[in-house]
Amino acid sequence: MVKRFKVWVYEEGEQPLVHYGPVNDIYAIEGQFIDELDNSKRSPFKARNPDVAHAFFIPFSVVNVVHYVYKPYMSQNDYRRDRLQRLVEDYIGVVAEKYPYWNRSNGADHFLLSCHDWVCSCYFTYATCLVTSLF
After folding, report:
1. Which of 28, 111, 126, 131 has its CA at 20 to 30 Å from residue 85's CA atom?
2. pLDDT in tens, 23-54
3. Closest CA to 66 of 27, 10, 111
């Protein structure tokens, strides 16, 4: 029996697109979750070793991607969601190549979190993989 659910947070990537999210606006739950699980040294749910993790968190901030990648936009074409899909696909490619965890489950035990409606665009980023989105 599992006594404590453990989540491994991938360390790849740099702020502000990963490992950081807003904590004081309409999408604050995304930033609060990232902050609690990824940046807190005291989280009882954060696995210190990926081999003991039950799930794997992809620490993308969809809110920050929309803010930093899509603005300013000049036309409707600047707001196409395939840019977000490519960012997530590239990130998954990096962790899939570096770690065995994505490949052993085909991403079934991986998740990202966002309360932004654009997370649905990430859902089918890899043709053969599925990122479980919680929103």
Report:
1. 28
2. 787 778 888 888 888 877 888 899 999 999 99
3. 27
